[in-house]
UniProtKB/TrEMBL annotation:
It holds the Pfam family DUF7659. This is Uncharacterized protein. It comes from the Bacteria. The lineage of its organism: Bacteria, Bacillati, Bacillota, Bacilli, Bacillales.
Length: 143
């Protein structure tokens, strides 16, 4: 299985189990507050995380640590792939596919999704190698 996909799935499972809610109507907000063990009037006990999402204020540090740890795990997986033929290739292949590289031949969205720049890729032999292998595999799968 794709190593990057495995990490993304593990992170997704953790995020989905974190006590955060999203609401786009009063009814959804009231239901979400109840699910967090709060009443609709306990608005002083929650904080917005943007895009209609909110968490309990008591969970702020856990929320920050969750996302910081996931970023560290991602960065560590890149660091551990010394050749670019493992996690890095899988990372690029997953995101190239997700951003339809096989049809567009465009990598800007892929790099943006990975918070990488052209310069960062150019300065790293293993990132270059992983991107090269991933683009080749993506194009072969389209043929």
């Amino acid at each position: 299985m794709n190593l990057y996909s495995q990490l993304k799935q593990a992170h997704e499972k953790e995020v989905n189990s974190f006590p955060m809610k999203f609401a786009f109507s009063d009814d959804q907000f009231n239901q979400s507050m109840q699910e967090l063990g709060l009443t609709k009037d306990d608005t002083d006990k929650v904080i917005s995380i943007g895009a209609g999402g909110f968490i309990r204020k008591i969970d702020i540090e856990a929320y920050r640590e969750l996302f910081a740890r996931m970023e560290r795990e991602h960065d560590q997986a890149i660091e551990n792939d010394t050749t670019g033929t493992g996690f890095i290739k899988d990372m690029f292949k997953y995101e190239l596919g997700n951003h339809e590289y096989g049809y567009t031949y465009e990598i800007n969205d892929t790099l943006r999704a990975l918070s990488l720049t052209y310069e960062e890729v150019k300065q790293s032999d293993k990132l270059q190698q992983g991107l090269k292998l991933a683009t080749e595999e993506c194009l072969q799968s389209v043929e």
